[in-house]
Structures are given as C-alpha cells and as structure tokens.
Amino acid sequence: MSDRTHLDHPPVAGLAPGNGYSPVVVAEGRLVVISGQVALDAEGRVVGEGDVTAQTQQVFENLERCLKAVGASFADVVKLGFFVTHVEDMPQVRAVRDRYIDVDRPPASSAVQVSALIRPELLVEVEAYAVVPR
C-alpha cells in the first residue's frame, strides 16, 4: 500500500464530515485508473439481471481483477465513482462495497444517478483510482 492520509474531518471551515467516505485522501505513488466496471462476466454476459446486489458483487469482483493485474488491491484505492440507475439502490451497493474496502479508512467517493448505462439491463457501474508504491 502507498503512503496515504485520510482526512475524515478536513480542517476546512464549513465542510461536513463524510458519511461512509473520506472527503479527502492524499497519497503518493503510481496512479492507477480503472475504467468503469459493470456486471459482465468473462464472456460478456450480464450477471444478476434485475438484482443490484448481484450486479454490484460482479462489479467489485471485476475491479478486484483489474487491481490484481497491476499488483494492487482495494487497500490502494483512493477514490471510487459510482453510477447507478436508481439512487435508492445505494444502500445495497454500499453494503457490497463495504465487504471490499476498509470501512475505517474509506476512499473518497462520488455517486451519481444516471438515466441509463451502456446496456439497459445494467444497474450499476463503478470506476476506481488507486495509488500504488513506486
């Protein structure tokens, strides 16, 4: 893991603390950027059609494969970006996320509701930024 500092309560007047994410993460090392992953298996088939929990599980398994390919892990992730078709699904998405990340030192995060993803049966997409030692 790279050297990282999580500012859960940044010393900036007027900034509320993050709820399940770090508002600021400072890290030094090599930047790894992982494109948004969706719930497709190795053959390109949708996993968990209609089931946001199953889809999110596949998404995080795909992210984990990408991280491992460069010698990284979720411990190196400094930012996650979530794109969901239904914002009310975020509790289920977050429950799966919490099985992969250190919930005491969570990455910075953003979440956006979108009208659609690249295929109509997809419900969630997640991109990741990691910093690994040089």
Q: Would you summarize the structure shown here?
A:
The protein is α+β, with helices and mostly antiparallel strands. It has two helices and six strands; from the N terminus they run E-E-E-H-E-H-E-E. The chain has helices spanning 52-69, 90-97, and strands at 3-7, 24-28, 30-37, 77-84, 108-113, 124-132.
DSSP strand tally:
6
Task: List SSEs in N-to-C order.
Answer: EEEHEHEE
Question: Percentage of helical residues?
Answer: 10-25%
Shape: globular
Q: Give the mean pLDDT.
A: 91
Give structural notes.
The chain is α+β, with helices and mostly antiparallel strands. The protein is built from 2 helices and 6 strands; from the N terminus they run E-E-E-H-E-H-E-E. It is globular, with a radius of gyration of 15 Å. The relative contact order is 0.28. The model has no long low-confidence stretch (mean pLDDT 91).
Main attributes?
single chain; 134 residues; alpha+beta; 4-stranded mixed β-sheet; two-stranded antiparallel ribbon; 2 helices; 6 strands; 19% helix; 31% strand
